[in-house]
Structures are given as structure tokens and as C-alpha cells.
Amino acid sequence: MNDVILHHYPPSPFSEKVRVALGIKQLAWRSVEIPRVPPKPDLMPLTGGFRRTPVMQIGADIYCDSQCILRELQRRFPEPTFFPGGGDGMPWAVNRWTDYVFDAAAAVILGAGADQLPEAFAKDRGRLYFGPNYDFQKIKAGVPHSAAQLRGQLGWLDQRLATGRKFILGDQPGLPDAVAYYLVWFVRGRWPQGPEFLAEFAAIEAWEKRVAAIGHGTPSDMTAVEALETAKSAETGTPVQADAHDTQGIEPGMKVSIVADVDGGETPVSGEVRLVARDSIAILHSEERVGTVCIHFPRVGYRVTLI
After folding, report:
1. What is the spatial distance between Cα 171 and Cα 241, in angstroms, rounded to a whole number?
2. Cβ distance 167 to 174 under 8 Å?
3. How crowded is the C-beta side of 238, counted as CA atoms within 13 Å?
4. Which CATH number covers residue 182?
5. pLDDT digits over 113-152, tens only?
6. Are 40 and 52 spatial neighbours (Cβ–Cβ below 8 Å)?
């Protein structure tokens, strides 16, 4: 089996979500560190232009977006399960909720630090997170409101954990722990007032230590050039698959473009459909440095357009 390769950078909150998931699965994996902002010349050939972090690579199969990455990890490595205690289905809804809560956390953290943000980072994340008309001074002025939204929703998590559970689903860690932990990790580590803010939530703080103790599995470093060579020497393991119930009528062989379903200024990724399903879609894409790779996206949160 090809190695699990994660393209990420240490301060990335969405990467932390996946790193904790790798710890829950107790996996060995290869770590390729990528730039925080574009250009990302040694990543884009793999992703067809997708710029978000993290990206998972297994041979010539490339998985974009943490939702897609987590789903594939569970498929390939079913034990230890992400769904202890029969939690199937519900954790994916929790994942979407925590990504929504991330918007409030990002507004608090970037707004509070608006005057100290590096120019290139501010321009990139402002457009990505807040749309084409972002204004960091307005975001800064709105920090008390954003913090109230964050506080109320973290309160729900604290209520759940205050029932005596070690983890969100019970005595064993699962997907909800990875997808909720990254928010707390982000707030504590990137907002100077984060530790004081979180001190209100005693159950979260105790749980936070338990999740941190899980670790990140067993990473080992890999260079970006090695990852590109790995893709070029491999072939996709993704079968051709159709979905008779697809509401857009998308079928293998069709040409499509795919982009996140928000106005983040991102370039769509285009290619030929290899697999279409209710939860995911995969396309073939060719680049000189990697040959032909199969790029996987979630369906939820992404817009697929026929071209």
C-alpha cells in the first residue's frame, strides 16, 4: 500500500484536525510542509490548482478538503473507527457545524490581530475567509459580536462533555473529537485572550488535554519533490464509478470544474470525471510534473459544473 502523505504546515488549523484524526487511527504517515500562502509551486501540480490546506496524497490519488480526507481515512483504515459506539452519520454533521464555527473563530482571531497581520497573509486570508469586500477594520470592530457567537456554540460542546464522557461519543475518541478539537486548539494558540476565554469551559479544558494526549500518529518527513515523484510513478487506485441517483446527471467521462461553494476567489479545478457518488467526486487531471492524477473532492460544500 502507498504511504499516506499529508501536505500541510504546522500552524494550519484544518491540518490539526487531520493530524489528530491520524493519531486516532494510530497511523504512520509522511509529512510534506507547504507554504502558508500561494504560490505553492510543488503542490499545485498535484491538485490542479486547489490551494487550500491540507491535502492528502496516496500514490496518484489526491484528496482535497479535510472532509474528503477524513472520509477516505475511515474507508481505508476502518479500525480504530471514527464512529465508536455506533455514531455513524452524525459526526459528518458535526464536522460541517465546526467548520461553520470556524468562521466566527477566524473573525475573532484575525480581527483582534488585524493591525499586526503580515500584508501578504492578510490579503490572502481576507479574500479567502471573508469574501471580495473584506475590511479588516470592520472585522476588528465586530470582534465582540464574533466572540459572543463563538462562546455560545462552544457552550454546547461544554454541555456535552460535562456529562462525564471522556470524549464526545463516549469512552473512545472519534471523528467528532478531531473536528471539534481544532477549534479549541486554534483559539488557544492564536488569540492572546484565548486561554482566558476558554477558562470558562472546564469540561472542554479537561477534554482538550485528553485529545492532545492522543498525538498525531507517527509522522516522518518527506520532501515535496519526493511526493511529486511518488505521484508520477503511481497509477490511481480509484475505480470508474457512476451514480444512477446523481441529481446533476454527472457521469464518468464528462468534463467538469470543481470549486468550493463560497466566494473565496479560488480557481476551479477541471478534469474528466472518474468517480461520482453522493458524498464525493473524483476527476482525472494531467500535469507535466506528476503525469495523470485522480483528484478527489467532497460533494457537500463544493460546486460541480459541467464544461
Report:
1. 37
2. yes
3. 29
4. 1.20.1050.10
5. 999 999 999 999 999 999 999 999 999 999 999 999 999 9
6. no
